[in-house]
Amino acid sequence: MLTVKDLIKDFGRARIINSAEFEVKEDEIVSLVGPNGAGKTTLVNLISGHIMPTSGKIEFFGRDITYDSPYRRIKSGIARNFQITNLFEDSTVLDNVRTCLFSVYGKINKGIFPVRHYKSITQEAIEILDVFGIADIKDLLPPSLSEGDKKILDTAMAFALKSRFLLLDEPTSGVATGDKFKVMDTIVSAIKREKMACMIIEHDMDIVSDYSDRVLVLSEGEVIADGKPKEVMEQDNVKEILFGVTA
Amino acid sequence: MENWIIYILNGLYFASFLFLTSLGLSIILGVMGILNLAHGSMFAVGAFTAAWIVGAFGGESPMIMFFVGLLAALGVAGVVGLVLETSIIRPMYRQALEYQLLITFGALLLIEDLIKMVWGGTAYYASKPFTVMGNMAIGDNQYPYYFLFVILMSLVTGLGIWLVMSKTQVGIMLRAISMDREMAKAMGIRIGRLNTLAFGLGGALAGLAGALIIPTTPALLGIGMDPLIMAFIVVVLGGLGSLKGALIGSLIVGETRSIGVVFFPEIELPLLFLIAVIILVFKPEGLFGK
Amino acid sequence: MMKPIYFVYPGIFVLLLFLPRLVPTYQLMLIESGITFGIMAMGFNLLLRYTGLLSFGHGALFAVGAYAVGMMGRYFPDLYRIEILIPVALLASLIVSAIFGFICVRHTRIFFSILALALSMVLYAVLVKLYDLTGGSDGIHIDLPIMFGKSFEGMKRFEFLSGAYYYFLICIFAVSTGIMFAIVNSPFGRALQSIRDNEVRAEMIGIRVRRYRWYAFILSGLFTGLGGALWSFVNGHVTPEIAEWIFSGEIVYMTLLGGFMIFGGPIIGAILFTYMKLYAVSITQYWMFVIGATLVILVLLLPEGIAGGFARLFAWIKRGKAAGTA
């Protein structure tokens, strides 16, 4: 579904992404792991069109999207959340999700009725909030939410875009440690039900091995390992990078 | 040929006013990020102060009183700038842009009417210094020495500002702020006091420019409006907070006006604004901005 | 529960319909002037409140509407009928705001404001300098138009303004307020607000940020131009001053005076401003001082504007009551 070939990104003289190559198949949940500064967020930004690569190629369902605008990528089915939450601060939780749905259903340039008129969209927005367990706070404004709830809302907004491929940058950072697995359960079951593919940046190795079908290990901009969680974690070079264990 | 010398000298003459006025506007915009709509009023304060002094006391020795007037204009306009900053601008630094613009707009209205209260609604004439200085001959044409004097004055002032900005501690701090506000804060520069200073300095320079114009133009209400809008174009052209930008921007605008009014008077003004628009679209940091 | 907006606004319109019987003619003319400014400020606020862009050049768009009427009278006297003039003014506003908007939305924040200011001054300079075409700084006299086949030739302007034109204006005002209310409450309005709140995220949920800012600018320009066209008949004369930045500053002032966070705030502010300016001019020669001082006090003490202040007061009273009964 998503194919990344020989992707390179330079910032000035520094090479942040160095010839990254990998694939994501349909219905697959892939974790992207690696030490701080390995280029994980940069890679997500490149795939979402937030920044443009120096060279290389990104294909989505066989179509070259390397230099497509973020807008076109969203329309072809790539959505993302943000590591540092990125919400509409002056709109309620419900409106944050509802605006996403208006965008998905093309109502922004065709809908001429007041927002209240679109009952089914409001209903769907509430259902999404319900799935993520934040329906009870739908009338609050983001600044009054806890860090964890903000994070969940951010992910719910990305999810609401009904994409085929979801990029999640640390969806559980800021979530209380005890709740992390609960949140991941919610996200992953929602993704599975909608048959989305997903790439998750995650630090917690327990979460990685529990929830992902495959793991990509990134180090200094290069993909150094790619495979099933159990197998990849046994590799010596991965152990060294992730856990500081020297074989 | 002689005509062209005169056009170019006229351009330099225009540019001198623009330079003095835009320098203050540019410093305030660069240091504080505020577009001061009341800046033209400082120009007006300077013009009225100088015209009043020359008119009231300059009967015997207009030249001496004119120099007194220049200094007084510098001082009075500077003080108005200081007062303005400490009284109503200071509470606005944390506010959104729209309120900052609006408060300077309010200040503009206030100062315009304060001028009317102090000096009445009448025009002040002070053309003596102009006639006293006399003319020089360029070919068959007469050219006033006074214009050359203005050009010289602004060169000297520009040099002075350049020395302050590059050699003194205050100047270096001012430049540091306009380059990177957060960094300057982190370095422990006390921004509050420098903001006041920048407003005072900007006001003083505009006041000087206003005083320099009164031998050729009577001091009238609203005299500061055109200089403000022209200085605004200069700042857009030259880039914010840059001395070099203000200088070159002034030269471009001054010469365009001087040559424009001779050859294409109808489109000279729209053309200047159009140039400003084009610069803003394609090079918003100005031709010589960082 | 019905929101107050659904009965307050219709109530105001009914009141406005009976106003000619209640107040003297000069008051009526003042209110008409205030209403045209209100339509303009409403358009301006679509950009400020709902899109997060502060235009310091909206006077130019107001001037486009007003000058469209003036130029039609000057060059096409046969077509000087209000049912033609208003669409022509709207068309002119559409074209100019499409061009201005296309350029301005390349920037946001202060650069947007400065760019709008510079563009408005281009138009101002053209209006002043092209004397033969526009009447220069003398401006253009606005004759009374033919309204739906009825000629008002020989009629005094105040008679025209307190008669047929008043009702025409009120109808247009009602319709345009309704349309604006629909715009800001539609999904499109929500998209604009999401752009204002967070343009990066808006882009990432599939909203074409720059394009929607442009649309908002054009819509805003249409309302502003409509206000200008309607105002020209009330004022009877158009001069380039309305395109100058001082007037643009007054538009910002009106909007903030009423309170830009409230839908009706700009309209209230515009009417209030018209009264304030007139009374300040009539009681003192230092009217700018009065306006300026009010502005400074307002910005320092009541940044939500008059309507915003009242809204907060009511919310406070309501909360107090609720707390008292609980």
List keywords for this structure.
heterotrimer; A: 247 residues; alpha/beta; Rossmann fold; 6-stranded mixed β-sheet; 4-stranded antiparallel β-sheet; 10 strands; 38% helix; C: 326 residues; mainly alpha; two-stranded antiparallel ribbon; 15 helices; 2 strands; 77% helix; globular
Your description of this structure?
The complex is a heterotrimer of chains A (247), B (290) and C (326). Chain A is of the alpha/beta class and 247 residues long. Chain A has a single domain, classed as Rossmann fold. Helices cover 38% and strands 24% of the residues of chain A. Chain A has helices spanning 40-48, 70-76, 93-104, 107-110, 119-131, 147-160, 180-193, 205-211, 229-234, 236-243, and strands spanning 2-11, 14-24, 29-33, 55-60, 63-64, 78-80, 165-169, 197-201, 214-219, 222-227. In chain A, helix 3 (93-104) crosses helix 5 (119-131) and helix 3 (93-104) packs parallel to helix 6. The longest helix of chain A has 14 residues, at 147-160. The radius of gyration of chain A is 18 Å and the shape is globular. The mean pLDDT of chain A is 82. Chain B is built from twelve helices and two strands. Chain B has helices at 2-32, 39-57, 62-89, 97-119, 128-133, 145-167, 169-179, 181-186, 191-213, 225-238, 243-263, 268-282, and strands at residues 135-138, 141-144. Chain B has a domain at 21-222. The radius of gyration of chain B is 19 Å and the shape is globular. In chain B, strand 1 (135-138) and strand 2 form a beta hairpin. Chain C is an all-alpha fold and 326 residues long. Chain C has helices spanning 5-22, 25-51, 58-75, 82-104, 109-129, 131-134, 157-162, 164-185, 187-197, 199-204, 209-235, 245-258, 265-283, 287-301, 305-325, and strands at residues 140-141, 237-238. The longest helix of chain C is centred in the first third of the chain and has 27 residues, at 25-51. The radius of gyration of chain C is 20 Å and the shape is globular. Chain C has a two-stranded antiparallel ribbon with strand order 1-2. The mean pLDDT of chain C is 87. Chains in contact: A-C, B-C. At the B-C interface, helix 4, helix 10 and helix 12 of B face helix 5, helix 12 and helix 14 of C.
